[in-house]
Amino acid sequence: MTTRDQARRAATDLSTLLAAESRAGFTWQQRMWQIAACLCADATDDEAMRAARSRFEAVYPGLRDFRLSPRSEPSAHERLATLTARLHDLLHMPPVTLRRARAADAPRIAMIWHTGWRDGHLGNVPDELIAARTPDSFRARAAERVPDTTVAEVGDVVAGFVMVVADEVEQVYLDASFRGGGVADVLLTEAERLVATNGHGVAWLAVVPGNARARRFYERSGWKDDGGFDYVATGIHVPCRRYVKPVSR
Ligand SMILES: CC(C)(COP(=O)(O)OP(=O)(O)OC[C@H]1O[C@@H](n2cnc3c(N)ncnc32)[C@H](O)[C@@H]1OP(=O)(O)O)[C@@H](O)C(=O)NCCC(=O)NCCS
User: Fold this and answer.
1) Domains of the chain, each with CATH number or no CATH
2) Residue 169: CB within 6 Å of ligand 1?
3) Residue 230: closest CA among 219, 241, 244
4) What's the whole-number mean pLDDT along residues 39-67?
5) Once rounded to an integer, what is the mean pLDDT over residues 30-49?
């Protein structure tokens, strides 16, 4: 999913919210118009902005003379503010660029890897493995694995990375603040390209069954669950799902 797709989705979420809040009052409605105006001002040649604008226009005409209940207003405003900020961030996100990792990236990679690993694995892998995955272990592995690593930069910030060895996509990790913005799609597409360049027709990866977000992401990207197996990590058997995807140059 591209950043633009994500932006379109945020716009859809926003318009769904507006439709659900059709009992909106005047202040609320004005706020909507302000947002719509901001969107329209930027909209000249941006497809996602045009989509947002038409959705807003479809929602607004009927909004008159309604009031939000005092109880629901704060939470509605909060949700609207979150969605608007998200939409803004996505639409103004600098382009994602890819490059081979350098030794100087290792500390940032280790940090993203450590926090992302915990997000995807706590409660989903044996306690023994959690005990072995200390911050130092990520620092050491990130430094060792620089030659296998490609990083994605957003502006001049390393947002995430992927490691590819032969036909295996070993790690796909994003800093939490960049998740949901299409950066992972760029990294995974590059990983697939690298597997094909390595001379393989099918890429594979391992994911723990409980890592629902990663599984959903892989499935949305055309990867198929090819069954369960034990991945041996640091001598520890970890029940995993094997995902595969045909790749071509
Ligand atoms: C896995 C990862 C790279 C995916 O990148 P991302 O930007 O978060 O991916 P997206 O948001 O585009 O896609 C995630 C999908 O999971 C869905 N999702 C989010 N939270 C979810 C949850 N708790 N349960 C199920 N699905 C979830 C999202 O809605 C989205 O699906 P959709 O497009 O059908 O709506 C990123 O989340 C990450 O770095 N996670 C931590 C590290 C990790 O687990 N890496 C993989 C190791 S195998």
Assistant:
1) 3-91 (no CATH), 96-246 (3.40.630.30)
2) no
3) 241
4) 47
5) 47
Is the separation of the CB atoms in 239 and 209 below 8 Å?
yes
- How many CA atoms are closer than 13 Å to the CA of 84, on its beta-carbon side? 17
* Atom 23 of ligand 1, nearest CA residue: 213
Residues in the chain: 249
CA–CA dist 136, 144 (Å, integer) = 12
Which of 16, 162, 185, 217, when mutated, tests ligand 1's pocket best, judged by the most ligand atoms within 8 Å of its CB? 217
Helix (H) or strand (E) holding 164: strand 157-165
Q: What angle do CA 142, 246, 115 make, to 5 degrees?
A: 25
Q: How does pLDDT run across 161-210, given as a tens digit for each residue?
A: 999 999 999 999 999 888 877 789 899 999 999 999 999 999 999 999 99
CA-based end-to-end distance of the chain: 20
